[in-house]
Amino acid sequence: MPTQPQPARPRYQQIADELRHAIETGKFLPGAKIPGENQIMSQYEVARNTARQALAVLRDQGLTEARKGSGIYVRAFRPIRRNAVSRLSQQQWGSGKSIWAADIDDRPLTTVDVEVVEVDAPEHIAAAMKLPNRARVWRRSRTFVVEGEPVNRAVSYLPSDLVAGSRITEVDTGPGGTYARLAELGHKPIRFREEIRVRMPMPAEVEALQLPPATPVILVARTAIDESGRVVEVNEMAMNSSRYILEYDFTS
Amino acid sequence: MPTQPQPARPRYQQIADELRHAIETGKFLPGAKIPGENQIMSQYEVARNTARQALAVLRDQGLTEARKGSGIYVRAFRPIRRNAVSRLSQQQWGSGKSIWAADIDDRPLTTVDVEVVEVDAPEHIAAAMKLPNRARVWRRSRTFVVEGEPVNRAVSYLPSDLVAGSRITEVDTGPGGTYARLAELGHKPIRFREEIRVRMPMPAEVEALQLPPATPVILVARTAIDESGRVVEVNEMAMNSSRYILEYDFTS
């Protein structure tokens, strides 16, 4: 980046800056309608293409969203601050709390498209769990909906030889969820790894998460490991990136 | 998602599946040219739009990239596995190593567009550091280039009252980098927080990282905290999401 005088910002950037400032200072509140292409064209005396580019900047910054046939609105959803370390601490699930309660305060959470079924382990899951080919695993799939918005589609795998007959094979896993049950089975998760990848969504993800255009997905693959070093769960999540801030705390 | 028999996958998905399989099994090696629209149309007897959609799936999965006027190629870049905990451990920078050495093995790393300058702290940086308004900070900006590709644009801020006169204000901070120098100054970072946001890139990010279309950026904002609880650095990074896998290890 230049250290000396900057060239003038392009016109569409200047317009986007002004609109962003109006959003950030509360002139346009969350959920408010902002000027559309026609209004920007006349207000700033610019061509349609310039107005369109200015609006695209705001959309790509996650500040606005289009509603079909209605206009462009300031995004109303307060991002989910997902602090991996505190939500997955034993104090959370060990005391019977939901992991999710740590993320969303008192916002309404529901779970939809739930499926709990025993399957042959997909190849990469068997490899991660050091299971033989075609080993059986329980697969728990669900979509988490916060304030009426699907934000996260999660698919967990757990080895059948560990969890058969437990509440982990039921839709409702009980207080503290899967990790509390694993602890009761003698396989308490003591270490986690989360791997994060980011890309544009597949059509199935667009559908499951009702993603607006230009919204990437965050893929988090979590591995849970017990005291003996065994991988007791792999959880593959796809998140609406505009709804999340991920936080990781660690020491040097 | 349905639990019962799935509807047939759309034709473009089937074609994308086949091409992905060919890439994953090495029929098309990294850097190889894959069939274009015309070839897919004749080989699979489909319309142009179907061929285009199939290619878009591969692109959105980060498997391929278009080169202007030449065709579509399998991406050759091996993703950077960035393990936050091990790269930022005292064993790394405390022994004079570069943090980056932990990420990229022996791949060539260069740093470009380096700027080290004292500025008034931007508002959000002053707030994060609990500094008064218009406090002075040193800003270190640089773009990291791995195997000839710009992958990460990082801008660090450090309070002037801590770092004035030290090598942190020079382009070359010396063995172990900024954190080793902070330790010598009596402000060793002992805790870190990384906050992750994801969105489509701004034009300046497209330029700095030479981003191809449909490539989101990962924004990582890291806070480094010393023994007294003081924030001694904020580092704001923008990464090419197709080049990175982020890893976080933690205990329950």
From TrEMBL, chains A, B:
* Pfam assignment, any one: GntR
Q: Which residues form the HTH gntR-type domain?
A: 9-77
Do the record's keywords include Nucleotide-binding?
A: no
Source organism superkingdom: Bacteria
Q: What is this protein called?
A: GntR family transcriptional regulator
Question: Which species is this UniProt entry from?
Answer: Streptomyces bluensis
Keyword flag DNA-binding: yes
List the keywords (alphabetical): DNA-binding, Transcription, Transcription regulation
